[in-house]
Amino acid sequence: MAQEPLDGMSGSNPPSFIPSGAPRRRPSAPKPAAGAQPIPQTFEPKGAPARRSSARTPQESFGTQPPSFSPASAGQSAARTTAGRHHTTIGEPRSESLRTASVPSSGMGGHRPASFSQHAFGASGPSPRPSRSGRRGAIAVSPKRIRHRLLAVLAAIVAVLILLTFSLVSWVNGQLTHKNMLTSMADTPASTWLILGSDQRDGTAGTGSSKDIPGSRTDSILVLTKPKTGHSSLISIPRDSFVNINGQDMKINAVASQIGYKALTSQVESITGMKIDHVVQVGFGGVEKVVDAIDGVELCYDRTVNDVLSGLNWKAGCHQADGATALAFSRMRYSDPTGDIGRAKRQRQVLAAVAKKATSPQVLLNPAKTKKLAEAGLSTLTVDEKTGAFDIAQMALAFKAASGSSGVTGTLYYTDIDYRPASGIGSCILLDGTRNTTLFQQLQSGTHDPGTVGGL
After folding, report:
1. Average pLDDT score, the chain
2. pTM for the model
3. In contact, 213 and 200? CB cutoff 8 Å
4. Is 434 left (phi over 0), alpha (psi -120 to 50) or beta?
5. Which residue has the higher pLDDT, 303 or 24?
6. Cα separations (Å) of 423 from 114, 251, 258, 314, 430?
7. Torsion (CA) 233, 234, 235, 238 in degrees, nearest 10
8. Out of 116, 119, 275, 284, which could bridge 188 as a Cys pair, Cβ 3.0 to 4.6 Å?
């Protein structure tokens, strides 16, 4: 039994029901009967409601649309537009010519079948692609990419800093003067520096009064200790401390000039019970240059002094001292009622003030001032055969910690400040060996409380 054709369709399937790949045919219009008005062709399927009037709106001429002819929503159209590709449905040939063909919209209510691409309705060129200023341009840079860029910048900065550091280290090592001053004593737990202040009395600028005898003496002897844990310490050894080397009586400040620096280092190790890791000798003439390089330091002394031998003219209180004043402040002892003990205390004060200001941001962040300080300091240093730039930097940090509020400072313990041996070497300071041994055991283990130590 023949299937009854849909009304107005002349037995032809709607275009959307044409099998995929089959050629599309234009439906042939039925021939009107003689004398009859031709019936306009519509897409109204069989079973559509009766026509109400001859004047129909475009929507009414369609009747009930099959699902395949439902108009695309605005959202669907936008989605297909941004996808950047043509949408092909079943029954639509993949021919570019059909996709680009213009389809009139009359009689379709302004809607297009869903099976047709957006380009099929009046577009004359290729399907538009999303602009870079549109959806793609609005995408922010991913956090992962930002992290990669930051890491690249940090890596470049680190590389530059490493290069500058190695250049600086190489330059510092080239400025140092080395001398054999270490012994073969076994290592002990703490890091230690023996700091020697040499007063070269040859009449040159910054080396003392011309009334002083020619030659040199180790007028300042300090032991800087940095334990693995605990408080750093800076302890002075009085220059007139009595020692006996191979049966010969002498003051400790004459050991280096008469026997040698290794002998002096050995005596300090005997007193402290610790291995000396580094020896740094500072000429007093360099103190003046260093202090001037950092534009002076603040010093305090509670006595008014006018000392001819050292050249110190001081009014009781705290004052900003230039290099010449700081040098005289470090050398004066005859106008001090405590003699060499008082001088050692003032020397520690000068060195602590220099270390504090030299490591301050106002100096370290000023390249010109830093360079001036380095040149002034390094020109007056003599170090042992193993000490380098890193050891000097560690010494400066340990010195600052020891001279601060959490450090341990002072002098050795002694039993007699005016000891006169029979050898006739004059007035000496007789050290308290037992108490000093206990002191340095605590200092190298970091168990000693902060504060001032030593004395009678």
Report:
1. 76
2. 0.63
3. no
4. alpha
5. 303
6. 121, 11, 16, 38, 14
7. 180
8. 275
Nearest to 16 by CA among 66, 59, 62: 66
Q: How far is it, in rounded angstroms, from Cα 56 to Cα 54?
A: 6
Token pair, residue 180, equals 């054999």
Q: What is the pLDDT of residues 385-402, one digit of tens each?
A: 999 989 998 998 899 899
Which tokens hold the place of 22?
């089959």
Q: What is the C-alpha to C-alpha distance for residues 410 and 119, in angstroms, rounded to an integer?
A: 94
Going from the N-terminus, what domains does the chain have, and what CATH number goes with each?
179-455 (3.40.630.190)
Q: Which positions ≥6 away from 139 have C-beta within 8 Å?
A: none
Residue with tokens 């070497």: 425
Query: What is the Cα–Cα distance from 145 to 91, expressed in whole angstroms?
Result: 46
CB atoms within 10 A of CB 272: 24
Amino acid 163 reads: L
Closest CA to 256 of 272, 267, 241, 246: 267
